[in-house]
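Sample 3 of the quickstart, ligand protoporphyrin IX containing FE:
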Amino acid sequence: MEPTTHFFESIKLPHFEKEQALRIVSIATATAVLYQSYRYITADKTTKKPGLKEIPVAPSCYPYVGHAFSLGRIPSDTIRQWHKDCGPVIKIKLGRRVWITIADPALAHKVFVTHGAQTSYRPHLNFSHKLFSGGGKNIGFGQPGEIWNRNRAAAAYIFQPKQVEKYISFIKKEGVDMVQRLFDYTERDGTVDPFYHLKLNYLNCIFGKCFGRTFKNIEDEEFLEMTSMVENIMKYLAMESDLTNYFPFLERFDFLNGGIINKTQELMDKRHPLFMQYIAETESKEGHNYVKALNESEFDFSDDDKVLFMSEMVAAGSDNLAIATNWLIAMLCHQPEVQTKLHQELDLFISTHGRLPESHERANVPYCFATIREAMRWRSPTFFGISHSVIEDLVVDGYLFPKDSIISGDMMSLHMDPTFYENPEEFNPDRFLPNAKSLHAAATGKLEERDTFVFGFGRRLCPGIHLAEAELFYTTTQMLASCLFEPTSELPDLNTFRYSGNNILAMPFQVKITKRANSVV
Ligand code: HEM
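Result:
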């Protein structure tokens, strides 16, 4: 009741008593609900066309609200179950908007890649489109067109393998520093939660490359501020996070919706000056960084463009990697035999070559690379990647994907498809042996040639994929060459997810990380 009282006290309604105002608001809301219900029902009928297979509507759909209140605590868990009950493609209704999720790799590939010309758009959502991407001016939430092409070309330029090479020694150093911190914290406290150390490592990797500066440790206030900004961005990017996208009348009653309009605006008001300051600081920094790379290139970025570009890279290029590596560590606690095999393979390479492997030598440490890949298959870092939108009515395999519907691949379901992956529930790095093809090769090409979906699809495929591969490879090999991961009496929970919006996070866990007695580094 308190926010309601506060709301009515804060608005200026000189001609109405509060009770009158409350009645008016109720009547207005009821009218809006009835009007929207009418439009919702009639709109739905117009999408039905003869001779087409009906995409099943997921269960627990209610008039007007659709599934908005049926998604549960972890929407991906609910949607995965709906796929099991209703099949590989389902329709979810959020107010008047239609969200179609796909759990079948072949259908997903056809929809997003074969028909990429129609499906490489992004839905217009309040936070991602209007605020985070400044009205569609960044890569992730811009629509195909001139600005998006420029941004994508700039990303392709700074993330091409040749450019990634320039930062390898920096990535390696960050890995060495993180391992030392893991040892220090274990020595001090007996055990350590690796997640924030991984976040610091990967945030430093991308932040260092963007701006030529890094954060000291996990208590560093600037690190905490930046990591909280990234976490909030990931939270608000989730489809279900902001109901005003589906019930626009809620914009007038922000307090009913958790104050999301205020919170997202505040977040972006904080981002702009902070990133402007980081960009300005790079002028005086020695060495190469992405801001300088953009300045030197012909892409013609204004300072505001750079804020959008860099903040997107920091958000997209840090947490996903930490989440993937955190799941890997959680899994190693459960499967010590996998860890032993990883140690043996790496030790053999190091003894033979007198150094750790480079990422282009992944075929020489195939089990190690396969384990990184299996960790991402088994627990994809995101629930739905980034959702796409279809620009015109599209029929694929007899299913109608209506114009403007939001479409997503359900990552967990795609990677648990038994026709695509044998015994998918089993964590088994051997499934990716002996093929040590790059992540890019694994995520592109014909359906029968690809065996990962975690980096998305076709024209929208993650442009940071080469960088992601390098960072995952060097961080993991550095850790495994030096560290022994031992569980505490409580093993990490592998089956419960922590809600964080867009990402699939493990529940917090502790692990003992010590220097391996027989380490050869
Ligand atoms: C484990 C690490 C990563 C994962 C799992 C991941 C996953 C994804 C996914 C699923 C998408 C959406 C693709 C689609 O819409 O079909 C995406 C897009 C994107 N990623 Fe990544 N990513 C990772 C790392 C990175 C890194 C390191 C960067 C750059 C620093 C990056 C930058 C981007 C950008 C800019 C987009 C938007 C592309 C567009 O909309 O055209 N990502 N990523």
